[in-house]
Amino acid sequence: PNPSNGVFSINFNSMQDNIFVAIKSITGSLISKSTYINVKTIPVNIKNAAGLYILEIKTNSGLITSKIIKR
Length: 71
Description:
Number of strands: 6
Strand order of the largest sheet: 3-2-5-6
Radius of gyration: 12 Å
Largest sheet: 4 strands, antiparallel
Distance between the termini: 11 Å
Shape: globular
Order of helices and strands: EEEEEE
Oligomer: single chain
């Protein structure tokens, strides 16, 4: 859901072997980064203050970028 309280999950249709997830501030500063192997669901918890964040998900298929609003 967007806006979010900062806690949500990223769900994939099938098992993903190599996923890189980065959360950045709207100015591009790196907030957190994680790598996952063999997952179908990734938990996300943005612990920073309310505001606008950029979520980047890199898979073997490409890059997905999304804006997340934390209340």
